Amino acid sequence: MSAPRIVVIGAGSADFGVDCLAGIFRTSGLHGCELSLVDIDRDKLELAERLARRLNERTGAEIEISATTSRLEALPGADFVILAVAIDREATWSRDHELALRYGIAHYAENGGPGAFAHACRNLALVLPIVRDIEQLCPAAHVLTLTNPLTRICSALNTATQLRFAGICHGIGIGYWIVATAMHRELELALPDDPRFVWRDDMIEHFEHSQRVAKERYSIRAAGINHFSWMLAVHDLDTGEEVSELVRERLVELPPSFEPLTRRLTDLFGLVPVQSDTHISEYVPFTSTPDSWAKYGIQLYDFAWASERRRVHEHALRSMADGVTAVDGILGADSERVEFVIDAIVNHAHGYEEALNVPNHGYIENLPWGAVVEVPCIVDANGVSGIHVGRLPEPIAALCRTQLTIADLNVQAFLTGDRRLVHRLLALDPMVRDLDTAVKLGDEYIELYGDYFQFD
């Protein structure tokens, strides 16, 4: 494939959209491509376009850039479509959490638990019309989606379309932070006095640095479902040695405040979960009360901190777009790795990706065939192909199967508008402990977000 046409829908996103742009421009194998930026927010789109033109100049990429608020203009002939879209992400996320809390359910409310139902339906209302346009205007395109809740969005793509797709998430990086913390002596990393994760700028800096250092020394092989995958093996790249057992031993030595839920699950099931206590707490039945959150030190996403951080980030982006400051800061930042996937397909590079979300074609033997799983993948001119990892420990597989059934019910409920399926999926959810609550909470979410989705 030469000079691919790449469409980024949601290009104005200050996080995912800008990450995608920076990754594309610094990837030499994509230089000379066509890049179309799409966003319904004209101000953010204009900012993304100006940043793209500065990145183009800085890298000498000679990429042909266009920008539009109409995806119908951008999609014809696209080879790749990147979806980085969401509906009012943090305001609705906060409401999802608060509504469930009124029923005594404490949960992170992003990718699992009752709030994930509402989150999925809002974003499916946004994503599926885009997908229908892709089917009409560029049916051969590779669809790369970053929209959460990723398993449920990908399950809808898998169920309701014939499109080629992969779900992309940076969650594997959290695993490297966990490994870096456990193996800090080998990596010569200084730990904070209290190594637990908190939503604070200095902790984010330490978190990102730890990941980068760990990736230079270790390789994680993980599998499961998005935000609920498990380390099957950890290898020392210097020696070739498999060090999973050593990682588990070192976790025990850390201060008790460090990821207590992760460590308890490791103790019980024998594998280390990849994605931190906040995310994995959404998928298990024993973290759904305020008391259990206190017990495990689980914290909600810090919406006020995130809002201020975004304000500062957008100010910096505008300074770059205006030519006041250099764009090198975003060129050197970590990305979601979308550019690596596209580059490997375009240039038949046989790239290896540690974690992509794809239909299970026997890659995890004891999870349902065709369900969306997160596994290592090979990427080449044929697209994305999962790697066979065998069987998960059966208790872990059982937890994953429940979530995959819930995801399927969520998609079917949205596609059919059948309220009974909503009640059933919430009754099945391990965070809901009462059948009446499943019905009442489902009905309240439906009423609260009636502007986005309707059920009979």
pLDDT < 50 stretches: none
Major sheet summary line? 6 strands, parallel
Q: What's the helical proportion of residues?
A: 40-55%
Q: State the distance separating the first and last CA atoms.
A: 46 Å
Question: So how many helices?
Answer: 19
Strand runs, count: 12
- Categorize the overall geometry: globular
Question: What would you say this structure looks like, in words?
Answer:
By secondary structure, the chain is of the alpha/beta class. It is built from 19 helices and twelve strands. The chain has a six-stranded parallel beta sheet, with helices on both faces. Strand 7 and strand 8 form a beta hairpin. The longest helix is centred in the N-terminal third of the chain and has 24 residues, at 114-137. It starts with a strand and ends in an 8-residue tail after the last helix.
In short:
With 456 residues, the chain is α/β, with parallel strands linked by helices. The protein has 19 helices and 12 strands.
Topology:
Blueprint: E1 5-9, H1 16-25, E2 34-38, H2 42-59, E3 64-68, H3 71-74, E4 80-83, H4 89-101, H5 114-137, E5 142-145, H6 150-160, E6 164-167, H7 172-182, H8 184-187, H9 201-217, E7 218-225, E8 228-236, H10 244-253, H11 260-269, E9 272-273, H12 276-280, H13 290-296, H14 303-321, H15 328-331, H16 338-346, E10 351-359, E11 372-380, E12 383-386, H17 394-416, H18 419-428, H19 435-448
Parallel strand pairs: 1-2, 1-4, 2-3, 4-5, 5-6
Antiparallel strand pairs: 7-8, 8-9, 10-11, 11-12
Helix pairs in contact: 1-2, 2-14, 4-5, 5-6, 5-17, 5-19, 6-17, 7-9, 7-10, 17-18, 18-19
